[in-house]
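User: Can you write out an input/output pair for a complex, sequences first and structure second?

Assistant: Here is one pair. Inputs:
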Amino acid sequence: MRLTKTHASAWKLLALFTVLALVLAACGSEDGTDTAPDPAPATTAAPDDGPDDGDTDGDTDGVGTEVINLAVLSECEGPFGDFHQQDMAGVGAAFAEYAGATITDPNDAVAGFTGASVAGVPVELVGIGCGDDTADKAIEETRRLMEQIGADIMIGPLSGDESIAVANYAKDHPNQTFINGSAGAMDTTLEVQAPNFFRFNSDGAQWNAGMGDVAYNELGWETAAVIMDDYSFAWTSGAGFIAEYCAAGGDVVSRVFPPLGTTDYSSFVDQLPSPDEVDGYFWVVGGAGTLPALKAFEDSKGPLTPDQHMGNLFWEFAAGSLDASLEGAYVGGFGTAADLDIPSVAEHTEIIDRHFDNLEPFGEAAPQAHSGFLVNYYSAAKALIRALEEVGGDISDNQAGLQAALSNLELDGPYGTVTLDENRQAIQDQYVRQLVLGDDGALGLTTVAVIPSVDQTFGGTFSQGEMPSRDVPSCESRDIAWIGNATPVVGGVPQG
Amino acid sequence: MIHTSDGVIGERQRRSLVTPETVLVLVVVLLLLVAPLFASQFFLSFVLTQTLLLGVSAASLIFLAAYGGMISLSQTLMAGFAGFVIGNAVTTGGSKGLNLGLDPWVGVLFGVLFTTILAFVLGAVASRSTGLYFLMITLTFGVIGFFFFGQVTTFSGFGGVNQIRSPAFIGLPGEYPARLFYVALGVSIAVFGLFKYVGRTRFGLALQGIRDDSIRMSSLGYNLWIHRTLAFTLAGFVASLGGTLFVWWNRQIDPATIGIGRILALLIVAVIGGMNRLAGAWVGAFVFVLANNYVRDVPLLNQIGLTENRFNTIIGIIFLLIVLLSPDGLIGIGQRVAGRFTRREQPSP
Amino acid sequence: MTTETIGSRKTTSQRSALQRAVLVTAWGALAVVLAWVLVFANGTPAAPLVSNPANFVTVILNAVTISGLYFVVASGFTLIFGLMRVVNLAHGSLFLLGGYLALEMQKAMVGKQRNIVSSDVGLADWIIPLLVAAMLAGLIGLTMQQVFLRWFQGQEMRETLITIAISVILADLMIAWFGSTAVDVTWPGALNQAITVFGIRYSLTRLFMLGIAILVGIALWAWLQKTRTGMIIRAGVDDTSMVEALGINVQMVFALAFLVGSALAGLGGVMGGSFASLAAGVDGAWLLNSIIVVIVGGMGSLKGALAGSLLLGTITAFAPAYLPSNFTHYSIIFTFGMLAAVLAWRPYGLFGRPE
């Protein structure tokens, strides 16, 4: 009986499936208008140009190539999928500005660019990888880009665990060059140390430079509790605070680790000392957890006050939904300082404005110029262009010349100079920010201090084999060069 | 209970070995044997090898469904578990996990052994339930496995295990794609043969009897629970082979590899191919891998805004259509077409 | 459909030996756990009951209140299954969709797109979105049932696969529509505060959540036990064809059950979106919660949903509090342990019956 039913209703079903197809097409086109009109098929524009020859020379080392094949690994699904356009805009703007590229569509950065050349050698964007924030998809996409499409150089990936996997992949493929997109895991450079993986942005610990100093010396926290997600990026981020705060003289009395995927944070928040037992709390809870963790705190320990609470960059992502009572709380950096009143910042905004109109889903491009994702991808692309210029576009000899040039590059970023250490990890200034309430009642960030030349090791706290984990770093007094050397920023102007 | 439709494996072909199906399978195998001669490296490594290794895991799912009437959503966990054990066993440091630094072959031994044991234990718990209950219990096992490897950083953590070494003769899949391809092909053939063989043994026949009429089998003195548990264990063993191939191919594994998305993806593979036929595992895997790699190149989809960002929407629609229109998957469609034009061969790979 | 009634009888002696063993182990384990929580739990975040009773009370309250939310979501899941034998694996998607719809509505009502604070939100700005979103989720579920599932009544596995396909599509479309950053629904100011009783501070919103759960539970119970529709539904659970033979429009009842079940998912979604947050992946997490609850409690049983919610809630709250501080991340193992123990004892859940 069950089976006959199937056949009897087959035609009904067919009709139904036509309806479904129409409905979905409607949804799809709505989606399409969201992300700008598509004059050319979006992501295929680039790969279409050379997948076939890529099949055959998929694994060549680039000797004697007339064209440099570039790939970008971004994320179009998962928690950072919204930033796909920003990532690609960063790369596109750098190539348009410094390598004569033409942006295919100023309303769709993912459509890519054409006509780029450095030192007379054409650079072709042959593929855009679409990650979903997981390491295994990142590897799959990396292999597609490097092995199928035959890219010589890849910019990416976006997030921590992805970058650890890609750096490991890089180790196995020394004749290709990888420049990190926006990932901030410490392991990527300090632990893996792949000789052909370069990172011109900071890691999660570096981004929090200045926070420990502020907590101890400005807010007067003698003791602090740290609550962080139980995985490597959060440990790294928390470690940056702990190392500096303890070095400055503070004492971390409690570390709490809610696992990722926690539904009810109350049992973890209850593990924190209460506000009368500790001077302050540092929050490293991200993704779907930021808001419930803070709510659980309010529920069981009392209101969130700006002088008792600090967050890392996760608070920047959640800023639109944070409780406005947190106005004035300090937030860890993301390597960016949009409101800094220096020429290079304004110039960067202009560059983005010049080449892009809209970056969906956030709308107009210029206000997004200083998104951390955009800036980090931009810096990676600019570093690549500068290094290629130095070697005259020559990527023969297994790209050895290019890799050497990248290692020694002094990159002029939107906020100052970036250099690399011996593990090819950026050394650069960091920015401490505060939550401010705008006139429209929305929380935003304002830069309040510049921390000069922050390196990855925090004065030797971290090293290969001594990576952030649940109990690393231990809380002890150390010498960290930048403590006490912060330059305050008032109204966007660095003081002194 | 799975509605077993008209095509019941084993029963129909128990007598004759030379059927259109076996001929077709042989032709496909022969074609695959010479594939490295004309396929590009990418196609070999990405499409064919991935199809084969995904097919092995899917075959374990289809075996349980077709022969045992049990739809298990734990097969992704089984494959992944083997991968994690191997990862913990063979890495030499610098990665998450235990970094035991063992020989890759010892790693495989451990991976297969521990997975089979796990399959026995989980099977023992789940096999007393049937039908939808069984499906949900195995789904829960799968998701708990995801959280286990994500949250218990002793073995992995969400970052996963990197730099997993494969035996020396296989080398890097990017450099020598043909080597791993042949290994995967060999394993696939062995698995196909193993399941076909088991289907004809007394155990296999009893299992099919239990699937069709558990009451009668029970009154004939068969212990349903033991049969189901052993079938689940066997399927776990096979899935562990799929997982082994996966870590050799990807050299990396992380909890997302066994997350709910992948759990459902394996089910989708099986359903697309056809839940009632073993070969459906590889057919479904082939279609899934093709869609995964080439959907972004279909111009029409881009025009209506379905870019690669919406891959899951597209695969979801394909899945929905197959479930609505052909519960026997593509193999079922192929059979119907073949039945209508008896002269024609089935259009499968 | 096959039943195993005879089969299970045949192996009764063997089973009961196993069951006895499981029972003894379970009671033993329970005794150990109680002793641990009472006296020995030093070095755990909550400390033993004897030295810190206040913590224990808080943890109990946490367990009961989160159980309430589990119950609301799972009761819809179990209602649909009980009557129609459909495992609605899109239940989590309806949960998330309900939350998003309520959020959009709250934004419109408050007149703010970002950083809505509790003081902006009146009771109506929360309750009306709650009710409307629940209704919309119910209608979407109903549509799903009418358009896709109705054709395949009786083919349980196929219906389940269809709901999986829908959940995959919905999950992806929700990312396209609502973005990938986590957002939340804001509690009304009147509720978003803490009360202190006997020196124990506790959140009013959590108690309120529990209150809604109790209301939902009572309403469902009254509906199923005291009304004619409820009687038909209960009869339908037992024997659909008999009800049909009596000339009752079973299709109508099925549609109603799907509507109510899906609305409960949406209701849970608004509560969950206020208590926690809305983001991609939350759908899967709540689907899993619901599945665990009904597997443990027994599918199709309201009592079972209650029991399963309480057990899962207890583990959610107790494991992180009473495990040694360095081992709190192992709490997932306890969820598995509970599941395995219950299934070994009763393969169809505490209040379930074999299919």
